[in-house]
Amino acid sequence: MNQPLAGYAPAPVTARMENHGNHMLKVAMQTGNDLLARVGSMVAYEGFIQYEPNPPAVRQIAKDWLTGEGAPLMKCSGDGLLYLADYGANVVVINLNGDGISVNATNLLAFDAHLTWGVERVKGLAKFAGQGLWNTRISGQGWVALTSRGKPIVVDCGGGEDETYVDPDALVAWSPNLKVKGKRSFKAQSLIGRGSGEAYQMAFSGQGIVVVQPSEDSTDRLRVRG
Fold first, then answer.
1. How high is the pLDDT of residue 158?
2. Is residue 70 within 8 Å of 38, Cβ to Cβ?
């Protein structure tokens, strides 16, 4: 078999990051344009690419990861094509144009190393005494790749007065300029969330998007922080 199977050969490179199918990310690597990626996500590469797990820049920010929300990252550098995946999850590619995105750490696959990033507490949930939510915020000019357990839905909040409610266990990412607040509900507990107790939702309002996956995370997003 001297020819690739029809329909499975890599397509010509058209962007820094792009999908190869629904479940794999292709990154065009160039010297000086490093990438931060989830440890263990590399499935193949072409060319000369080096990996550095837990680089100094990540260790510095990891000091703030007392909540356990930090994703283990590696720095990828070199020239060639790099292919990443995360156990067959759907891959979502986002090109930031000077704006930002707030991402659930478990859904973060890769992003350009020159982007500004850090772990921060989500504002607006203070009324949940003893509980909180931490996310990874990424901003600047560059590329970000997320994963979703199934094909996600992207909700445009539209900037109106109506709020968009999301189960925090199904939340992938959102525009950081959105207003966020928590909501408790007894009536909805049989429909939203997996717990047998009080159900929690997150309410978003303002101008921006919310990315929701059709599968709940295996860990509770709203839980007591030590």
1. 75
2. no
- Angle CA 13–19–20, to nearest 5: 80
Q: What is the pLDDT of residue 68?
A: 47
Q: Which residue has the tokens 């599968």?
A: 215
Report residue 141 as tokens: 């000019």
Distances (CA, A) of 116 to 35, 138, 224: 13, 6, 28
pLDDT, one tens digit per residue, over 175-222 is 999 998 887 765 554 455 555 444 678 889 999 999 999 976 655 554
For 97, other C-beta atoms within 10 Å of its C-beta total 8
Radius of gyration of the chain (CA): 18
Q: Are 67 and 134 in contact (CB under 8 A)?
A: yes
| Burial class of residue 78, CB neighbours in 10 A (0-12, 13-18, 19+) | middle
Look at 150 and 62; give whichever has higher pLDDT.
150
Determine the Cα–Cα distance for residues 55 and 106; give it in Å rounded to an integer: 19
Q: 81: closest CA among 127, 129, 20, 136?
A: 20
Q: How far out from the chain centre does Cα 180 lie?
A: 18
